[in-house]
Amino acid sequence: MFDLCFRLKKIRMKHLTTEQRYALKAYLDCNKPKREIANNLGVDRSTIYREIKRNGRKNGVYNPDFANELAEERKERFCMYRTFDSTKQKLINNWIIEEQWSPEQIKGYCDKNGIDMVSHERIYQYIREDKLKGGSLYKELRHKLKHRNRPVSGKHEVIKNKVSIELRPDVINNKERFGDWEIDLIVGENNKGAMVTIVERKTAMVMIRKLNGKNADCLADTVIDMLLPYKDSVLSITSDNGTEFARHEKIAKKLNTNFYFAHPYASWERGLSEYSNKLIRQYISKKTNFDTFDDNFIKQVQHKINRRPRKNLEFESPKVAFFNYVALAP
User: Whole-model pTM?
Assistant: First the structure.
C-alpha cells in the first residue's frame, strides 16, 4: 500500500519546487544516477529528464536559479493564455451568432452583470483570428470588420518609449562583441501566417519561430521564449518600427537587455536581418501561406542556414561560432 501511494505521489508531482531544483543541482554535481535522484526527490525519473531538458542551459549546465526563471516565465504565459477560456469563447460565439452583438456590447453587458470577460479588443482579435482560419464570425458584425482596415495584429498602436538607433553604442555598430541581435517579422501571402526572425550580429546565428498572430503581446512572449535560454548572451536587440514590437519594454525587462529602433525605411541599418530573411526565403517563399509550414519544417530550415559555412566567419558555420561564444558566457 505504501509503495502504491508513493508511486501515485510521483505521478502527480510533475514540476519541481525551488528546493528540489537546488537538490537536483547538488546531486548532478555529485554525478548521481537519474534514477537515484528521482527516488531521493520523490518524483518520477521522467520528471528529472524533462527538467534538465526544458530548464537547463543550452551548454548542458544546470542552474537552479536559471531553471526557476524559465519555469516561472512559462507559468506566467500559461496563466495569461488561460484567461480566454472555452467558457468565454462559447458566450462570445453565442452572442455574436445568435444576437449579432458587437464586442463592445458583449464586454459592456458582462461588466454590468458581473460576468468575467476579456476586453473588447481581445474579442476583436479572436474574430480576426477566426476569419483567418476561414470562420464566419466577422460576417455577423454590422460592419463586417470593414471599419477596421488594419492588420490582423489588432488595434494600431503607437510605440511608446522607443530608444533610437542613434543612441546605440559603437561597440554594437562595429560588431565588436558577441550578444547583439537584430529582429524582424516576415509575413506570408495575404497575411497568411507570420514568423519572427532573430539573428546574432557577430556570428550570424539565426532563429526562426512561427507566430500564432502578429499582435505585439504574442511576439514579445515568443521572443522571450526563444532568447531566455541565452539570456546572458543577449546584450541588445534592434528592430524596425513595426507595431508588432510595441511590447519592446517587456522584452527588454525579461531579458535584461537594451532595445533599439532603427530609423523608418532604413532597412540597411538592420542589414544582417534583411540578408538572413533572404536566406529563409530560399526555403519559404513570399508567395506562400505560412500556415502550411509546421514547426518541424521551420526548425529544419533554421538548422540548414546555421550549418552553412560563411566567408565572413572564415568558413566556419554560424552554429559552431555561436555556441563557442555561448560556452564562454558566465
Answer: 0.58
